[in-house]
Amino acid sequence: NSSKFINGSRLLTIKDYTLRNPFTKDIIEVGNAPTDKTQYWDFFDMNNIPDKLKSMPLFIHMDLSVSGDKTGIAGTWIIGKKPSQEGVSQSKEMYYQLAFSVAVKGYQISFEKNRQFIYWLKKQGFKIKGISTDSFQSTDTGQLLKQNGFDYKMISVDRVDQASHVCVPYQYLKSTIYEERIRMYDSTVLTDELLNVEKDSN
Questions:
Q1: CB neighbourhood size of 141 (10 A)
Q2: What is the pLDDT of residues 62-82, one digit of tens each?
Q3: Does 83 score more than 70 pLDDT?
Q4: Cα distance between residue 21 and residue 103, in whole Å
């Protein structure tokens, strides 16, 4: 009883091919081995970040893992309201732009490097308004981010609301895409992830 959740042609309409992911690779290999001194920002090209967007509210979500799976990190800016169109009333809904996305793999993922990347972004001038993680192994990360002054919350994006029987985060994402209230760069990995989301009617 599973079906694809997001239509490929609808996803295509929000892609802006003038935009670039500041991460030079969609998947990076950075772990916690003693000899691994690599940091996430070693793969981050600030030249792909327009200066005017640094001051926009940035929200970051991390899908955490330890080993055997990739950690996913993505940031999204709130640009404002959806641009008006001729003959159409000004939308009151938020308009977004994908800032960055990356998948991290390694023998074991370093939670410390996850946090260090957040601290680094702040030092670069990004206006980080909120950070969220899924529930897996998130307690320590959440506590430390809060201690450092970040607005943090835990969000289980695939948990179904018992009252409405709707997975609210995914449904909001779908609505945002279908209403063309977000724009994103082209990314093979991210496109595959979005198009392979399935809804189980049970």
A1: 20
A2: 988 766 678 899 999 999 887
A3: no
A4: 12
